[in-house]
Amino acid sequence: MKDNNKIAVVIPTYKAKRHIFNVLGKIGPEVDKIYVVDDCCPENTGDYVKELCTDNRVVVIKKSSNQGVGAAVMTGYQAGIQDGMAILVKIDSDDQMDPSLIINFVTPLLTGEADYTKGNRFYDLEKIRSMPKIRLFGNAVLSLMCKLSSGYWNIFDPTNGYTAIHADVARHLPLSKISQRYFFETDILFRLNTLRAVVVDVPMEAKYGDEVSNLKISEVVGEFLAKHVRNFSKRIFYNYYLRDMSLASIELPLGILLLIFGVVYGSYHWMHSISLGTPTTAGTVMLSALPILTGMQFLLAFIGYDVASTPTRPIHRNFLRPKTPSTMGLQGEEKSRALLKK
Q1: Which segments within the chain are labelled E, that is strand?
Q2: 86 lies in the same domain as 103
Q3: What pLDDT score was predicted for residue 335?
Q4: Do 225 and 271 sit in the same domain of this protein?
Q5: Sign of the C-alpha dihedral, residues 254, 259, 265, 268?
């Protein structure tokens, strides 16, 4: 039977050879396994770690082709699940993430408060001044798009890669379908919502050194937008029409239809009145404005319902198979308390 207290760290690596040992050296004894996933790195980081690392917890997994950071993380998840790990923490290999925060990420999972935790660099308004302004704006836009597509209105900083997931939740995710590249952090949130998993933000400090990001915003903005629209459409269909129906299931399509009708009808008569040089009648204006206002009210009501529907009950408790029902929660709580005292 799986020990439901074991913690594993997954480190996808690509062109981060000079930082990898800084990261490995900071990982504390609370971690039972460390998976270094070499995503066909041209610097042969995997071989470098195999040759010089003396930490028995480290397992190097080399991929035969470069599939992307998302695929590398999923490979690490699969290895952790197969090895009976309970918590899977993902940190980057560029030394931007502080491994001493691992306990902050795993505690909500061990105590049964969450199924998935992720970092948020926006809690401390003073410290985020170190973040480049373009990243601040980009994260604000991406966070809004993520809230709409994933349904997690209570989280921010969706592209933050410092995460932890309960293995019993990870094994129910379609790992092969999750985006293989940079969109995977947002895509996994969409997948978690379809499971009704609880996601919690963990405050962390923004840190930027001399490392160079492999993500080019100009190259992925179109891809991200298309995938957000796809995930939003799927989530709405799954949650409001396939699994369940509610008043919100009527408010959304009715609001969209009324808004479109009002805009099209009003635009047509506005252009028609300009071409004739005569003012539009009050009745025509009202016939256009009323559907627009009503449609917006329906859409706002739908958003309010969607916000209130954010998952709040952790699901991994339903998947656990404890030795005895009375001790399942206590084991995780005892380990969390012990780790917090260190």
Answers
A1: 7-13, 33-38, 58-62, 87-90, 116-120, 163-166, 199-203
A2: yes
A3: 53
A4: no
A5: negative
Tokens at 337, concatenated:
């308390």
Strand 7-13 and strand 163-166: the pairing is unpaired
Between 19 and 333, residue with greater pLDDT: 19
> Residue 54 burial by CB count (10 A; 0-12/13-18/19+): exposed, middle or buried?
exposed
Q: Which residues contact 266 (CB under 8 A, 6 or more apart)?
A: 285, 288, 289, 292
* Predicted pLDDT of residue 206: 66
Predicted TM-score (pTM) of the model is 0.84
pLDDT confidence of residue 87: 96
Classify residue 20 by burial, with Cβ atoms within 10 Å: 0-12, 13-18, 19+.
buried
Distance CA 185, CA 180 (A): 10
Output the average pLDDT for the chain: 86
Task: Give the sheet arrangement for strand 7-13, strand by strand.
Answer: 58-62, 33-38, 7-13, 87-90, 163-166, 116-120, 199-203
Domain count, the chain: 2
- Pull the structure tokens for residue 83: 């090895």
- Length of the chain equals 342
Do the domain assignments include residue 95?
yes
The confidence score (pLDDT) of residue 330 equals: 45
**Mean pLDDT calculated for residue range 216-233:** 79
Is residue 178 included in any domain, yes or no?
A: yes
Domain hosting 297: range is 245-308
Q: Could you tell me the CA-to-CA distances from 34 to 77, 120, 174, 307 in Å, in that order? A: 11, 23, 23, 37
pLDDT, tens only, 231-268 = 999 999 999 999 889 999 999 999 999 999 999 999 99
What is the pLDDT, as a whole number, of residue 16?
87
Write the CA distances from 145 to 187, 217, 235, 268, integer angstroms.
12, 15, 13, 31
Q: Which amino acid is at 98?
A: D
Higher-confidence position of 182 and 46: 46
Q: Mark whether 233 and 165 lie in a shared domain.
A: yes
